[in-house]
Amino acid sequence: IDEASVRTIGPWPWPRYTMAKLVAKLAEDKPSLIGLDMLFPEADRNSPDAFVRLYPELPKATAEELRGLPRMDDLFGQVIGQVPIVMGRAGVDAKPLTNPPVLAVEAQFAAPLPKGAKSWGQAIANIPALDDVALGHGLLNGDPDDDGTVRYVPLVARVAGQPMPGFALELARVASGVDALTPVARADGVEGVRIGKAFLPTLPDGRMRVPFRAASKAPPLSALDILYDLGP
Question: Containing H/E element for 26?
């Protein structure tokens, strides 16, 4: 989602109808997995009900017809439910709720998460219409270093007392068809995570350094390339 696509389609956040079209276009190439590294914690502002409330002078028949249209969130949710998608969540530094909502964690943790793992009191999740139909969920957090640069992301962390994989690890888990993740402890910290036959070393708090240099070799595609078939 670059400057060119924002200039053409409009400012972020885009309507869920646009996001549904974007994901549907991606799905035409039958990808093994799609990761949406963004959050949708609120209902779409472009819903038919919101439009009717914005224009109370609409004739009653027109208003009723508009209210009968499907919600954009429902359309987006239908697309997500038909495509292999991992969605994001974000841990936030806040006091844990007395009765926190139960968040689905598809990854099975084969060993306890050490005490030294990064921990957040609450999570920002997507609305249920989208969150409930995704194939997997991972944390999007990436705290910047003192110079403002993000160099590390969590592979595993604890949110509201519940162990969760980072977004990158969840993408790898789902893509490889693995159910279980095995945190490896060293004293009270995390030494790394086993996923299948692979071992991924981490810092004691469960974070991994991001290999940005390797990732930069892949040329990015604009959302415009996908929506309007402009890509290679």
Answer: helix 16-27
- Token code pair at residue 132: 């409930």
String of DSSP letters for 143-179 = ---TTS---EEESEEEETTEEEEBHHHHHHHHHHT--
pLDDT (tens place) for every residue of the chain, 232 residues total: 999 999 999 999 999 999 999 999 999 989 999 999 999 999 998 888 888 988 889 999 999 998 888 889 999 999 999 999 999 999 999 887 777 777 889 999 999 999 999 999 999 999 999 999 999 999 999 888 889 888 999 999 999 889 999 999 999 999 999 999 999 999 999 999 999 999 999 999 999 998 877 665 667 889 999 998 765 5
Q: Which residues contact 118 (CB under 8 A, 6 or more apart)?
A: 91, 141, 154, 157, 158, 205, 206, 207
What is the DSSP pairing of strand 34-36 with strand 122-124?
A: unpaired
Rounded CA gap, 171 and 165, in Å? 9
Tell me how far CA of residue 204 lies from CA of 114, 162, 163, in angstroms. Answer: 9, 18, 15
Strand-pair category, 198-201 with 108-109: unpaired
